[in-house]
Amino acid sequence: MISSKSRLLLDFKNYLLTEKGCSDLTLSAYLTDVNQYLLYCKDKNIEIKISDESNIENFLNELSIEGINARSISRKLTSIKNLYEFLYREKIIDKDPTENVLPPKLSKKLPDYLTVEEVTSILNCIKVDSPYDSRDKAILETIYGAGLRVSELINLKLESVFYEECYIKVLGKRMKERMIPLNRVALKSIEEYLKKYRGFFAKDKSEFLFLSRRGKKLTRMDIWNILRKRAKEAGIKKELHPHILRHSFATHLIEGGADLRSVQEMLGHSSIITTEIYTHVNKKQLSKIYDTFHPRS
């Protein structure tokens, strides 16, 4: 029988140290990933020792829907594989459910993003004359305006928005808080939604900023459906996912001349290597940057 979560993590940590000889950095990453998986199992009422291949694949699929890249998902699978290897060696389970679970294919394909015109078309297409229109416009303006992950968006609270300072406070990965600038257009959309329409959704008291029609916190799938609906209304035919607005935010900032470190901080990336993927600026922009900054130009 598996002991408490804290005991399991402690035993697993000792296994990684003594049997695997993991470095501090690897150890921290593995424990963070496994803790995330354990929380997922708890949320889905899945018993760790009887979790099967489909449960693990569903967990990885949810990460993909959220926009987590293939490399990070592959690492999380490695962490989970180590967990089940430990449980198998300790005879807590008699079969490793990760044995046939394959990591996602790593691709060098650049992230999909929308042009400035396409984003503008989607946002301008939403007429704010109903509760759903006002809420959806505020949601999409906020994701694009601050480059948020979907999980960060749905966890925004009423107290997260600082109107005078034009900032929002976001709780990112590993519970790290960061303050992100937010443009006046997005802030105005939020204010209008709060003033006129949030009461329509708020069946009970809720601390969350954006609510479902039942007055609950929105889900990742809710945001996906909102984006697809509004993009269809705007005539955008691309295959969309909520993370595409985050990619667009970063791409447009860098194409506009923003420095990589500032974009890294706004996105909440722990490593600038992750942010560098957004440097796929077009040749015209590269030429402009070269002409501006190269001493021989």
Automatic annotation (TrEMBL):
Record-annotated active site: 149, 173, 243, 246, 269, 278 (o-(3'-phospho-dna)-tyrosine intermediate)
Main localization (coarse): cytoplasm
Domain Core-binding (CB): start-end pairs: 3-88
UniProt entry tagged with the keyword Lipid biosynthesis: no
GO terms under cellular component: cytoplasm
Keywords for this protein: Cell cycle, Cell division, Chromosome partition, Cytoplasm, DNA integration, DNA recombination, DNA-binding
Annotated localization: Cytoplasm
PROSITE patterns (alphabetical): CB, TYR_RECOMBINASE
SUPFAM superfamilies, per database record: DNA breaking-rejoining enzymes, lambda integrase-like, N-terminal domain
Keyword NADP: no
Family per record: Belongs to the 'phage' integrase family. XerD subfamily. Belongs to the 'phage' integrase family. XerC subfamily.
Function: Site-specific tyrosine recombinase, which acts by catalyzing the cutting and rejoining of the recombining DNA molecules. The XerC-XerD complex is essential to convert dimers of the bacterial chromosome into monomers to permit their segregation at cell division. It also contributes to the segregational stability of plasmids.
NCBIfam families referenced in this protein's UniProt entry, alphabetically: PRK00283.1 (NF001399), recomb_XerA_Arch (NF040815), recomb_XerD (TIGR02225)
Subunit structure: Forms a cyclic heterotetrameric complex composed of two molecules of XerC and two molecules of XerD.
Protein name stated in the entry: Tyrosine recombinase XerC
Organism of derivation: candidate division TA06 bacterium 34_109
This protein's encoding gene: xerC
